[in-house]
Amino acid sequence: MKRNWTALLLAALLLFSALPHANAAHAGYALVVNTSRLNIRSGPGTGYPIIGGVSGGQWVRVDATYGGWIQGRSMQDGASGYFSSSFLRMATASGGTGSVGVVVSSSYLNLRQQPSYNSPVLGIFYNGTTFTVLGEIYGWYHVEVSGMRGYFKSEFVRISGGGSGALGTARVYSSNGGSVNLRNAPSYSSGVIGQAAPGTIVNVYLRGTRFWYISMAGTFGFMDANFLTASGGVTPPSPPTPPVDPGPTNAVVTNIGSSLNLREQPSTSSRVIASYPGGTPVSVRMQGVNWSRVYIPSTGKGGYMMTRFLTLHGMPLTPMRTVTHPDGTYVNLRTRPSLSGAITLQVPHGSLVSILIAGGEWAQVKHEGATGYMMTRFLR
Q1: pTM tops 0.70, yes or no
Q2: pLDDT digit string (tens) for 59-103?
Q3: Which of 127, 215, 228, 291 pairs with 201 at a CA distance of 20 to 30 A?
Q4: How far is CA 190 from CA 138, 155, 173, 222, 271, in A?
Q5: Which CATH number fits domain 168-230: 3.40.1440.60, 1.10.10.60, 2.30.30.40, 1.10.3210.10?
Q6: Given this chain, do its domains 20-90 and 320-378 carry the same CATH topology?
Q7: Is the distance from CB of 292 to CB of 252 less than 8 angstroms?
């Protein structure tokens, strides 16, 4: 018996040593660069299947690293998986300088090993101590001071100078004269960490399609590019990138021994337009968990098919869309696909929703446990 347990232990150790080694990475965000579309894979390597993609200029939440691969989640549609770090640039600002500025002059500031109050203290520093900024993450500055590297809490330091890492500067713009929010993540559902009045000059480090990573008054964060204009070598924001056309071969009818109906509306009681055998190429124009809006290239017909009878290629298991209102407010979730439907929830601009039934004018969606209908023109 003891010999059997020893053999099992050795086998487990060999299996563990064969797996890719994960390096802990502090939660942060990275921008997709140098490609129009970055593949999302099921594992850390090109040998793993492609399970989705994220467009260039979009943001990825970083959870962990595996050598040259990053495990995380697309901020574009919520798809999770592994991304090649060769096409990602972390939202960090380096080269700036700062100084300790504790409120009580007799107090001191701890330099910690990691960005956490529970992390070991590497040293203590008093007001006026200068340091070099190596980066910033979730309200902590990664710094080099007195030959040591560690983390200072951001509210107890003052930053001076944008540093060599900045691309340039930009000016905050607001059509109604109101302040513009600085957020701790590239999403409208993230927390507000500061506000800038129109005309404020900010340092720009990374330029995404929708959000730019900037610093103002020593605070680093994300701001909607629509409220920023060029002010020092930074080009104005370009129009949002339109959704990628899935093309004619992103799905096929699953071979289940019978044909699949193409229906006029996403319902089994709707009129059948045509039926297609297994293996028929399908272009999914809007994916839903239950029903998808599709186009059949071979016949030129469009309609709806039940998603469970389609074999999808390079698409997420749970389709997500971002709620987008032109005024940056909210979009109503209704009990039925009509403006006369009762409003059950007001979903904030920038929120992610799951698409259950893809539609033409309306789609059935799910947000934070609530299911209802939303106009597709507000879903991006």
Answers
A1: no
A2: 999 888 776 788 899 988 889 999 988 888 877 655 567 788 765
A3: 127
A4: 12, 19, 21, 10, 43
A5: 2.30.30.40
A6: yes
A7: no
